[in-house]
Amino acid sequence: MQNVTLQLVDASTRPVIERLAQLDRHEASQYTEALPGPDGLYDFPRLSDFFTEPEHHAYLVHAGEQLAGFCLLRPFEGGSTFLHAFFIVRALRRKGVGMRVTTDLLRSRRGRWAIAFREENPAAARFWRQVATEVVGDNWTEESRRGVFTFLHLDVDQHGA
């Protein structure tokens, strides 16, 4: 498989994340029923936080030299790191890019993690459970919140990688 890397976003690459976030919101709309605004853009609450707030990190995902997607990390309850958003372009899905970048990311930042997804998205549900199992075996928990999201909690420090 080609090399998969993360690039921390700075002011020069912020517009790239903003454009990819529109693709992410469009895809999510099949579950959220969100519609674009009058300007043709989807709302992405808190996206600006990832460029202004401490401990909020935005990364571009590259597969070889190609732009593959993005991920957003922020602090979460109990000192966890929350994977706020994760997106891989369709052309690179089911090719190992997502699995590689998420397992590498989790293993590179040891500690408590929280990952959320919607159960009505069966591909996402399978993917995130596979990621958790790959990183910490069966030493992860899940909980349902607001009847919409399933949260996975894993401790990479304790269970290692």
From TrEMBL:
Keywords: Transferase. The keyword NADP does not apply. GO terms for molecular function: acyltransferase activity, transferring groups other than amino-acyl groups. InterPro entries: Acyl_CoA_acyltransferase, GNAT_dom. It comes from the Bacteria. Residues 18-157 form the N-acetyltransferase domain. SUPFAM superfamilies: Acyl-CoA N-acyltransferases (Nat) (SSF55729). Gene3D superfamilies: 3.40.630.30. This is Putative acetyltransferase. It comes from Kutzneria buriramensis.
